[in-house]
Structures are given as C-alpha cells and as structure tokens.
C-alpha cells in the first residue's frame, strides 16, 4: 500500500520544530511513510528542497494538487499536468474555482474547464481527479455536487476525501460506496467536535457548528470501515489546520495508525 502525507503539512511541522525536511520525512518513514503528496505551489517554490528530500530518503511523489482559477487562468491545469509528468507521478487533483461573478452561476465554466483538463491529462497519460470540498461556497461539497462533475465528465476520477462530507453531515462510508468505482486515491482526514489544541482551526459546517482536524484514527470519521472496502487504493494522510506545534507528531500518529489498520485487515 502506498502511504503518503501532504508535503505542505510536513513542512509546517518541520519549520515549527526547527528540523530539516529530510529529517522530518525520515522520521515519518520510520512510521511507514513511502510517498509525498505535493502542491504545485510547493514545486514552484521548493523544487531543490523536494529533489533533495527524494534523493536523501527515497520517497516518491504520489500525486500533485492545485487550486485552478478557471476565470483568470483557464488553462492552468496544463502546468499542473506537465509537472506531474516531470516528477513521474500519474495523477493530479484539481480544485477548480471561479474568481469572477457569473450571472447564471459558475457551473458551465467549471465543467468546461475540468473537461478540458481531463482531455489534456489523457494525452499526457495523467489521471485527473476531483475531491469533495469542505467549503460551504463550493458547488461540490456534497455527494450530489461531486456527482454532477463525475457523471458529466467522462474520464474524470475521484480523489475521495474521508473528512469532507461533514459539510452537510453526509455519511462518508455510504459516499465511498457511491464513488468507489471511480476512486484513484484517498485523502485520509479525520475530524473531531472538540479541538485537540488551542490553535487548531475548525471548519464551520452547514448547521453552523464546527468540526476540527485531528490525527487519522483519533476522530469520528469511519476511516477503518472505508479502508476495509478500498483495496489497494493509495492513501494520503492529511492534517491541514492542525496545530503547527503538534503537526509532526500528529502526522506520525496518523501514519502509524494507517499501517496498523491496514495490517489488521
């Protein structure tokens, strides 16, 4: 099983703790890590560092992700997909959005842009995927919203995020069953109703209450049950908005829990 962590989460923790990225990644390797999941912005800003981490530790890039403004940069997906080819990974996650106001809503722009990205990815041998989004203003923050893209764009994959169906309190296990045949990777994100740390950042959901991030396996998301169904789908532990002071420890706990859970299946 390919177990990765968001590079940006590792970097947040490494900066706070005053250790190098190579040291931080090596620590997570001891827990079971074998890949890094990288934002396009990080490739632009830290490519020498990323190269050094890969050379020194042997980890590989398991996928790339990027927010793409389809109004101001309608072909921005090309840079993302070309970068995936360059770093020898086979999938990208696009988080499409529109920065301008559309009289009839942004859906046509979003659908057309993602469809163009999928077509370009097919030419370059890269899988293009979308996730369920944990923002109230996103048109794909629910099962129905994400399905509107997957059902209308042939060849689009799902990067299933276990912790993002909280926005409308949908059942993430049932959501996984719904999307399972189209999932090519999974973000393992857990949630809790009470913050672990004073500086954790919560997410306001549709009913006005708040959910917080927590290490994988320590919250209420049905991640174990999803892993029992998922087979050999690559997984990426995610801990955005968690306390920088406790980030590396939270990531280590997440990777160890994932390894233990998979080992017990």
**Helix segment tally:** 9
| Average of the residue pLDDT scores | 97
Indicate the percent of residues in helices: 40-55%
Biggest sheet overview: 8 strands, parallel, barrel
How far from one another are the termini?
A: 12 Å
Strand tally, please? 11
H/E series, N to C? EHHEHEHEHEHEHEEEEHEH
The helix-and-strand class reads: alpha/beta
- Globally, the shape reads globular
Strand residue content: 15-25%
Which stretches of 5+ consecutive residues score pLDDT under 50?
Answer: none
Spatial strand arrangement across the major sheet: 1-2-3-4-5-6-7-11
Using only CA atoms, what is the Rg?
18 Å
Textual characterization of the structure:
With 265 residues, the protein is of the alpha/beta class. Helices cover 42% and strands 20% of the residues. The chain has 9 helices and 11 strands. An 8-stranded parallel beta barrel has the order 1-2-3-4-5-6-7-11, surrounded by 6 helices. Helix 2 (21-31) runs parallel beside helix 9. The longest helix has 18 residues, at 40-57. The protein is globular, with a radius of gyration of 18 Å. The mean pLDDT is 97.
Which key features would you list for this structure?
11 strands, three-stranded antiparallel sheet, eight-stranded parallel barrel, alpha/beta, 9 helices, 265 residues, single chain
Overview in brief:
This protein has 265 residues and is of the alpha/beta class. Helices cover 42% and strands 20% of the residues. The strands form two sheets. It has an eight-stranded parallel beta barrel, surrounded by six helices.
